[in-house]
Structure formats: structure tokens, C-alpha cells
Design goal:
Blueprint (H helix, E strand, L loop, with lengths): L1 H16 L6 E4 H10 L6 E5 L2 E14 L7 E13 L2 E18 L4 E16 L2 E3 L2 H17 L3 E2 L5 H7 L3 E6 L2 E6 L4
Antiparallel strand pairs: 1-10, 2-3, 3-4, 4-5, 5-6, 6-7, 6-8, 9-10
Length: 186
């Protein structure tokens, strides 16, 4: 009986010490802000059918948990400039992609993996349609970026967040937000 009372007291003190830390959440807007600051990293020259192409991501939109699924959807508005001899051809490319978020407890950050291309459209000087080769190049740039750049990092300067990050965390995707929830271990 005494042991049961001691365990109950420890459990209650553990609950009260994490009061206010029961849930940490971040939204579409916060993820969009983080990614927008990193857009210059998404500019690079690629080769398309042997020709140099300057690829730039101009804008990103974020939709966390669409249709109550455990994914993050990204709308990518990009442009490319194909250089052939002395001519330059501007190309506008819009991609809809999605990936599965995961929390990396060592890096204290959320990354996306299993990136899939859902839809694409291209506009190149009167041509509208699908140009699979350019889609592949664009997806290669985006995949490489997302492998090494988190979509969200915990603010370790905030004492509450720093304390929360020391606990084992479960991640839950809800429509419009990602939640990090302390996992109670017994």
C-alpha cells in the first residue's frame, strides 16, 4: 500500500512539473515562414538534356494534414531559364508535392520524408502541359533540400521548449498543425 502511495505521489509530481508542456504545436504559417527564409538555397543550375537550366523556387505554400492525413503538402511555384545558344527561354513550373513529417529528437527538428509529386504544370512560351524531365530535375532539387533542411526547428532559447525537448516526444499531425506531445513512460 505504501509503495502505491509513493508511486501515485511521484506520478502527480511528474505531471505538475510538466504543466504547461503537455503539448507544443506549430502551424502552416510557421512552417511556411521557416521554408520561405530558406528559398535562396533552392536556386541552382541543373542540366536538362545537356543544356544548362537555372532553377529557382519563388514561393512555397504549406498545408499540414490535408483531409486529416498524416502528411504535409507543399505547393511549389518555381521558374527555370533554359539557355540554348544565345537564347534564353523562361519556364514557369508549379508542383504539388507531399511528404510524411517526422521528428528527429537529436536535431530537435521536424523533417519531411517519402516525398511524392502529386501534380505539376508547366508554362513555357505558349506551351502548357507536363514536361516530365523538368519535373524530375525540380524534384531532385527539392528532395535534396528537404533531406538536410528541416521544415521546423524547436526554439532551444525558450526554456519551456528546451525542457520539453529533453522528454521523449510523440508527433501528431492534425489539420493545419503538427503537435509534439510528451510520451509518458512507466
Amino acid at each position: 500500500m505504501r509503495i502505491l502511495i509513493i508511486i501515485a505521489a511521484l506520478f502527480l509530481s511528474a505531471c505538475s512539473s510538466t504543466q504547461g508542456l503537455s503539448l507544443y504545436s506549430f502551424t502552416n504559417t510557421e512552417v511556411e515562414s521557416v521554408l520561405s527564409k530558406q528559398l535562396p538555397k533552392l536556386s541552382r543550375e541543373v542540366r536538362l538534356l545537356g543544356m544548362p537550366v537555372q532553377f529557382d523556387v519563388n514561393d512555397l505554400s504549406v498545408n499540414i494534414g490535408p483531409d486529416n492525413r498524416d502528411v504535409v503538402a507543399l505547393g511549389v511555384d518555381s521558374s527555370a531559364e533554359i539557355k540554348v545558344f544565345t537564347f534564353k527561354y523562361p519556364v514557369s513550373l508549379k508542383l504539388q508535392i507531399e511528404g510524411s513529417p517526422f521528428y528527429d529528437s537529436e536535431k530537435k527538428a521536424v523533417f519531411l520524408r517519402n516525398i511524392k509529386l502529386l501534380d505539376s504544370s508547366i508554362d513555357a512560351g505558349g506551351f502548357s502541359g507536363d514536361l516530365g524531365v523538368l519535373n524530375n530535375e525540380a524534384m531532385e532539387v527539392i528532395n535534396t533540400f528537404l533531406e538536410t533542411n528541416p521544415v521546423y526547428e524547436l526554439n532551444m532559447n525558450d526554456p519551456k521548449i528546451a525542457l520539453l525537448s529533453k522528454l521523449p516526444l510523440d508527433m501528431k499531425v492534425v489539420e493545419g498543425a503538427i503537435q509534439l506531445i510528451p510520451r509518458l513512460q512507466f
